[in-house]
Amino acid sequence: MTDPILSLNDVTFTLDGNAGKVNILKGISLDVAKGETLGLIGPSGSGKSSLLMLMGGLDTATSGTVTALGHDLTAMGEDALARFRLEHMGVVFQSFHLIGTMTALENVATPLELAGMSDAYERAKAELAAVGLGDRADHYPSQMSGGEQQRVALARAIAPRPDILLADEPTGNLDAATGDAVTDLLFDLSEKRGATLVLVTHSRQLAARCGRVVRLADGLISPEAKAEAAE
Amino acid sequence: MSLAQSARIARRELRGGLRGFKVFLACLALGVAAIAAVGLVRESLSGGLMREGATMLGGDAELRFTYRAAGEAEQGWMAERATRVSEIVDFRSMARAGENTALTQVKGVDDIYPLYGEIRLEPAMPLDQALAGADGLPGAVMDPSLMAQLELEVGDTFELGTASYYLAAALTLEPDAAGSGFSLGPRTLLYRADLEGSGLLAPGTLFETNYRLALPQGTDLAAMREEALSQFSDSGARWRDSRNGAPGLNRFVDRISAFLVLVGLAGLAVGGVGVSAAVRAYLERKTPVIAVLKTLGASRRTILWAYLIQIGALSALGIAVGLALGAAAVLALAPVLEARLPLPTEFTFYPGPLAEAALYGALTALIFTLWPVSRAEEIRPAQLFRALSDTRRHLPRPLVILLTLALAALLVGAAAFFSGLWTLTIWAALGVCFALLLLLAAAAGIRRLSRRLSRARWVRGWPALRLALGSVGGPGQEASAVVLSLGLGLSVLAAVGQVSSNMRTAIQGDLPEVAPSFFFIDIQPDQIGPFLTRLDEDPQVNRVDTAPMLRGVITRINGQPATEVAPDHWVVRGDRGLTYAAAQPERVSVSEGEWWPEDYTGPPLMSFAAEEAAEIGLEIGDEITVNVLGREITATIASFREVDFSTMGINFVMTFNAAALQGAPHSHIATVYAEAEAEPAILRDVAQTWPNITGIGVREAIGRVAGLLEGIAAAITYGALASLVTGGVVLIGAAAAGQPAREFEAAVLKTLGAVRGRVLAYLVLRAALLGLAAGVVAIVAGGLAGWGVTTFVMEGDYSFEPVSAVAIVSGGVLATLIAGLGFALRPLSMPPARVLRSAE
């Protein structure tokens, strides 16, 4: 593998729950190559989403290192992580996570504005058009269907042209047909923009579209996945 | 389903505890506590005034005569009925010590004073020992503030009129002081007999003689009052008894408490906004439960009652907590209040005010919850399966609207009934309704404006500001709740601020420009010439007005007892200053009728103040009987005059023709308009040349009145602050309710690349915008209320007072900032993944 764009080295992640400590990730080492599409699969509670969050610097590993584009995310402060995401990462969530008080256009324009782009709104409009929602720019999330909301979320994630696109069960809340449409968009856009795509999914079909699949079980990469990764 | 089933559902629902109801309970409890506390303090004061009635009055009953002592018949009547009679004279004078002079209220007592209560002196000694005097001089005691003005120590001597006195002690407690009412000068107390030879009680001098009666136990005070008034009221005697030892004070306490209760009700309305928001939020959360219950067959009625019972139980808890809080606060602060209030108090458990507060609390809870609760019955089972937000926005059923209006009318009616101030209560209620409507409209307008602004081109590139505007203008109720609750609280404070600052301006700012420097009273006829010469020669004196002055009581109007014709009018309530004039004075303008000829000597004629005449319903030709020095004079009204009492010049309600009063013993009054720097010399000169003449510094007098009004304004401001505290609770509640949304927004923004500074800027701007909106609306609502009260209740000129307005807007912004930032810390510090995951 050429220099990985994302590299995790012996990463553990523990949360303090009401019933005591929960070891979610128990030592994950994984490299993702630039331009690769990687699917993370595994049963519920296996730690897929947590792993994705650590890749995006949205949470901090308990131990180990997470490196993205040569930057050690585990050594960065929260603001540095935010700036890093602004420049290099886009994230899509299962529940879309659009800001309810903003229209579709404003949601998409927000990261562009944060990046100080003077043409943020023009770009946002273009991105909305690219996901087929050019005519819904002024609608609030509550006025849109789930599929439409996820397309807005996708446009928002892809708008700043990220190097890495992270998607956490992006079709989990959508019906099959809508899910397929969103999946097509996700893969098309990441390919066109040359983004590395890491996605978490329960869907074998969706995973099958990825260049590589890593299976997690009980906080660890399962052996067959390791073998697959080593090939 | 039956009511019992509704109750069972309610009980099960309430098992979840009080989560989500803290703001509901706090709002209701605070409002009820404030009203209960005011009511308890009022009852404690009334109780104290009742208990101490005889002490404050200085006897079981009192007969008071103006200008004179009781005649033989009157003395005989008193002696026959009372076990002891104490005679006291009371008048204003100038006390002098070396170069210092000061206005004092002199009380000349006899050797059995005080009949009731205890006098306290410093150093401690019996009164008779103090008044016995020393060094061959009669003794006197003085209020410590007067001693300080005159730079006197115990053992020094001072002068009153032409006599000297030995200052034996400081007077630290005068038991009947509160019953004597408002006085312009601090007290000097000495024996009545020692005033002989001082020249202070000459004929025509303004003084009162009070006869305090100790009566046998079981005396029927009401019957005795009737008897006294029927025999002596025409001779100018006035009656008071221990059932109401300090009627003015009682009235004052009642009025202030009524005002405070009205302010408290405004606070309860603020709390109502919080109560309503809390119930709405609760029912939003309960929508799935209600939908499930309906799926299982629960009727609309069952659902309605189930939630009404829950809200009722919680309201009862809130009210109970409020009553306990109010009572505990008053009882805990009782020692402090007892020490600070210059009135007797009796702090104990009074059920009346607690019941009143509970009633207001229950009605407010019903008014503000009926609407949101009625929406519960409209929830459909299908709502389990789709978003609900837009399905229940229409008005509730007409019955609910009617019931809400009826309850509101009942609340206003109860407040008016208990306060006795119908007009003011109705205006206050209309004011609160208007403020609520204004705030509702403003909240809608602000949301719309924010939404438009968030899309404006110039905002692009300022993501924090755009986010804040978008958040205020976007869907959701938080912006409305904050603007309503904080806005209403601030409106009450703004109104109080505008009224009190206008009042202050009226007293301290406007009047001194036209007001004289001094009033001089008790100028004897032979002194008026030299007195005027002294002032005319002074180049720093700009103007001197003089008039003869007597005092008299209006006893009859057209032959009917005056107190029956105009029972509550101030003109007939006590004795009034009278004057006489031959020619129409220069500054007097006759509005109706004609002034008498200069040489008129016929039956007595009178010119009456036009405004007061209109209030009483007098007409030209009406007959007014006035008792002057025990003699009845009946005069026919020949003219009405425009009298502006606010100029503080010489103004009399009644002016007689000269021949009618000229023969009666009287003194003169003068107003002197002089440069401020000349004032001390004038006062000193007059006091030393004519010791019997009393000079009252208008600035000083205004200061004392202003001080009293400041106290009232402070009490009402505290009341308004209580409503602001409730507003603060609602604000905190709204901020707390909005915290999950803020956490979510912060997490999303951080995910999208916003650094914490930017997220903080967004949260700060959002809070500031809401605070600013609430503050600006409060200034408009408060300004309008202030204008209404100043113009129509106080009949003064209103001018917008910017300082308190700016303070209020700043306070609004600051309060929302603090509440907003307090709840921003968590969203800022939480890793985005955890927030977003919990929102999945």
Task: Write a concise keyword list for the protein shown above.
heterodimer, A: 231 residues, alpha/beta, Rossmann fold, 6-stranded mixed β-sheet, 4-stranded antiparallel β-sheet, B: 840 residues, alpha+beta, 4 domains, 6-stranded mixed barrel, elongated
Q: Which structural class do the helices and strands of chain B define? A: alpha+beta
Can you tell me the number of structural domains of chain B? 4
Class from secondary-structure proportions of chain A:
alpha/beta
Rg over alpha carbons of chain A: 17 Å
How helix-rich are the residues of chain A, as a percent range? 25-40%
- Shape, per Cα inertia axes of chain A: globular
CATH homologous superfamily name of chain A?
P-loop containing nucleotide triphosphate hydrolases
| Poorly predicted tracts of residues of chain A | none
Q: Quickly give the CATH architecture of chain A.
A: 3-Layer(aba) Sandwich
The ordered string of helix (H) and strand (E) elements of chain A is EEEHEEHEHHHEHEHEEH
Distance between the termini of chain A: 10 Å
* Tally of DSSP helical segments of chain A: 8
Task: Tell the overall outline of chain B.
Answer: elongated
